[in-house]
Write a structure and sequence with these properties.
The complex is a heterodimer. Chain A has a domain at about 260-458. Chain A is about 80% helix and about 0% strand. Chain A has helices spanning about 1-20, 25-45, 60-80, 80-85, 90-110, 115-130, 140-170, 175-185, 190-205, 215-220, 225-250, 255-280, 285-305, 310-340, 350, 355-370, 375-390, 390-415, 430-450, 450-455; strands at about 50, 55-60. A two-stranded antiparallel ribbon of chain A has the order 1-2. In chain A, a hairpin with a 4-residue loop joins β1 (about 50) and β2 (about 55-60). In chain A, α5 packs antiparallel against α6 (about 115-130) and α13 runs antiparallel to α18 (about 390-415). The longest helix of chain A is centred in the middle third of the chain and has 32 residues, at about 140-170. Chain A is globular, with a radius of gyration of 21 Å. The two termini of chain A are about 20 Å apart. Chain B is an all-alpha fold. Helix content of chain B is about 80%, strand content about 0%. Chain B has helices spanning about 5-25, 30-55, 55-85. The interface between A and B is large, with 44 and 44 residues.
């Protein structure tokens, strides 16, 4: 809880910093503030408490996800100082990013549908603005516009779902809803199931799974690169956490009725996202499809209903966020140097900057699921728990599609190691190098110690 | 008293009109209005259930929805103005530069 208040306070500080002219030290102050917030989260570790009349709950699950969101946020801030420092509206951008994190923390720690709704909206409204933060760029405009239309459309569905579930159960409190469902299993009215379905549609938009994914590649490709990095790490962690809290915990006893739909979504997500990614010539867009595909794998673990699933999900999201932050961080440096994120821009990266090429290679190999990196163990654990739950067909689809994945992750790697025509060097600042190195080390360490991370949550 | 089903059917109709409007209309401002229609259909369901269940929580939720919808539309209109400066149009078919 203290972490949420600290992060909120940082948001207000960065808004006020514009007025009292404190812009110079703001970036460092925010990073330090976030470190304090991590310390506060670690202080809450393994405790469980509710706040504001059961509106918010900080149990081990929420605390771990809050910690992940803030830690990824710190790394994100350190990798992106150019996005804030040389450009206009520095304080506003910082404040919006911080408020996005506040929304994310609320989404993983809600205990009442009202907080879920408010969290999603705080997160989304800030992101609509951030997606359009390159005001002169047509692409950024289009990304912001599409994101806004699709985001509020999805919110409409989610709200209708919440309203119908409220009508059937008489409460917004998640544990009261669960108790009511347990008590009246046979007597639930028909519109209750319509409500669950509408909530599923609304949240499926937010976690961007096929067939509700069509906005995601456009928005990811059009937004400024580091905002895309933020969307595919922090926002994804929050959205998947909220999806799990709703369908894994709150609606656990009626999960059977939506299971066939979720299975269909998984098959479609894995097939469509992985196959379309093969045809991309823009690395940023390829990573967008890869992030859609990774949500498909997470859902596969979700339906297996393993007791260790919370830990596995946490491990998957941690390793995914680490590796995709490396990939986007280097892509951002390439875009700054060459003005493009197409596959030709990464050509000859090894000659221009061996360190960046090595980090990027490790990140892409981990995303593809090659041992001994973190991505391999996260996929392995998901497939293992799905086999235990007898979803053999789904696992076969997942294994085949992740083989397809190996192809499109290798394409940039081959380009990077091919000889370069021009001899222009790629410049990385010392801070960027240090943090990219730390993230790469984390990708290796997570691969070596998966059990340690999983036992945090079980 | 009007039975609860009437309210549900009315708001289901309004909600569907909103959804169809978002899907079929090409003018951005009309799309905004349709999204508002969807949210107001939800408000109607909330208030109807709140009255039916004798529970004030639903009415409080309506205030949340109204406040958030206002914020959302403010941001949406700002984005629309920003886009209009570049494209000189509110037709969403102008937004077709990002393709797979």
């Amino acid at each position: 809880m203290n972490a949420l208040l600290i992060v909120c306070g940082l948001g207000f500080i960065s808004l006020v910093a514009e007025i009292i002219n404190l812009k110079k030290g703001l970036h460092i102050a925010i990073v330090l503030g976030l470190v304090v917030a991590v310390a506060a989260v670690i202080g809450d570790w393994n405790t469980s408490a509710t706040f504001f009349n059961n509106m918010l709950i900080f149990d081990p699950f929420s605390v771990a996800f809050t910690c992940l969101i803030i830690v990824v946020g710190i790394f994100w801030f350190c990798l992106t100082s150019p996005f804030f420092i040389g450009e206009s509206h520095q304080t506003d951008r910082t404040a919006l990013i911080i408020f996005t994190m506040v929304g994310g923390i609320m989404m993983v720690s809600f205990h009442n549908m009202a907080i879920l709704f408010l969290g999603i909206e705080i997160l989304s409204i800030s992101l609509y603005v951030l997606a359009g933060s390159h005001k002169e760029s047509f692409f950024s405009n289009e990304a912001a516009f599409k994101y806004f239309i699709m985001g509020s459309f999805a919110t409409g569905f989610l709200l209708m779902g919440i309203a119908l579930v409220y009508g059937a159960t008489g409460s917004f409190d998640t544990s009261e809803i669960t108790m009511h469902i347990e008590g009246h299993k046979a007597g639930l009215p028909g519109f209750f199931y319509v409500g669950i379905l509408l909530m599923l549609v609304g949240l499926a938009f937010k976690i961007s799974v096929v067939p509700f994914h069509f906005w995601a590649p456009d928005v990811y490709a059009g937004s400024p690169t580091m905002i895309t990095a933020f969307m595919s790490t922090v926002v994804k962690i929050a959205a998947v956490g909220a999806f799990y809290k709703i369908f894994g915990l709150c609606f656990f006893s009626v999960q059977m009725s939506v299971l066939p739909i979720i299975q269909g979504i998984i098959i479609l997500t894995l097939l469509v996202a992985n196959i379309i990614a093969v045809y991309q010539n823009n690395v940023k867009r390829m990573l967008a499809y890869s992030s859609i595909a990774h949500v498909g794998y997470m859902l596969l673990g979700f339906i297996s209903g393993s007791v260790k699933f919370e830990g596995i999900l946490f491990f998957y999201l941690a390793s995914y966020a680490t590796t995709s932050l490396i990939a986007f961080g280097i892509l951002y440096a390439i875009e700054n140097a060459k003005g493009s994120t197409s596959i030709d821009a990464v050509k000859g990266l090894y000659n221009q900057n061996p360190f960046a090429a090595t980090c990027m290679t490790i990140a892409l190999l981990s995303l593809a699921g090659i041992p001994p990196f973190a991505g391999f163990f996260s996929k392995y654990l998901i497939f293992g728990s799905a086999i235990e739950a007898d979803h053999i067909m789904l696992v076969i689809v997942a294994v085949v599609t992740s083989l397809v994945g190996v192809y499109y992750y290798f394409k940039p790697i081959i380009y990077m190691f091919s000889p370069a025509q021009a001899s222009d060097k790629l410049y990385l600042s010392a801070v960027q190098k240090a943090f990219l190195g730390m993230l790469t080390a984390a990708a290796l360490l997570l691969g070596l110690l998966p059990e340690w991370i999983i036992t945090i949550l079980s | 008293m009007v039975p609860i089903e009437y309210y549900l059917w009315l708001s289901a109709t309004l909600f569907s009109i909103g959804v169809l409007g978002v899907l079929y209309r090409r003018n951005a401002i009309v799309i905004f209005m349709c999204i508002e229609l969807m949210l107001n259909a939800v408000n109607l369901v909330m208030v109807a259930f709140s009255n039916y269940l004798n529970d004030p929580a639903g009415q409080v939720f309506v205030f949340f929805i109204m406040a958030v919808a206002a914020a959302e539309v403010a941001v949406g209109l700002a984005i629309l103005v920003m886009t209009f400066r570049n494209t000189k149009s509110t037709d969403i078919n102008m937004l077709n530069r990002l393709k797979w």
